[in-house]
Amino acid sequence: MFYYNRYNDLSKFITNTKDLKIENKNEIYISKYYDIVIDLELIEYTKIDKEFICEISKNTCKIDNMIQKYAQYILKENEFNFSLEVIQIESNNKINIMYWGTDVNTEFLVDLEYEKNEFIIKNFNNIKNIPKNWQKNIKIESTIK
């Protein structure tokens, strides 16, 4: 089973820059409800565009849906037993997202770039340089219930 739109309640996310708070020295919760944090290990907070953090937060559902669709497309699996756990900001247009297994102790990393007001998958675990148009001409059977 896939879990499209599982992060669609925007009221559960911080979307205003004045509400962003650093916790545990290097984390910003963008959703305590969903337990999703921005990890500031790769970049100093003072160098981050706070609007970019809010843009990530506002697009978490869309990003997660896209990653699930890519996983279904490339892995040909009928299940996505992972949860989005940690987002690292590499720069003001690059993020890394860590997914953790929900059934098995495993994890994988997805790298995305933000360009022209959209997030684009660049790398999916060990698959590198994913073309921007990977979704073109593919049919993914919806498992949304």
Helix share, percent: 10-25%
Q: Identify the overall geometry.
A: globular
- Mean of residue pLDDT? 90
Residue ranges: pLDDT <50 for 5 or more in a row? none
Strand fraction band?
Answer: 25-35%
**Strand sequence of the main sheet, in spatial order?**
1-2-3-4-5-6-7
What is the structure about, briefly put?
The protein has 145 residues and is of the alpha+beta class. It has two helices and seven strands.
What does this structure look like?
- The structure is a single chain.
- This protein is α+β, with helices and mostly antiparallel strands.
- The chain has one domain (10-124).
- The protein is 17% helix and 31% strand.
- It has two helices and seven strands; from the N terminus they run E-E-E-H-H-E-E-E-E.
- It has helices at 50-58, 60-75; strands at residues 22-23, 27-31, 36-39, 82-91, 94-101, 107-115, 118-124.
- A seven-stranded mixed sheet has the order 1-2-3-4-5-6-7, with helices on one face.
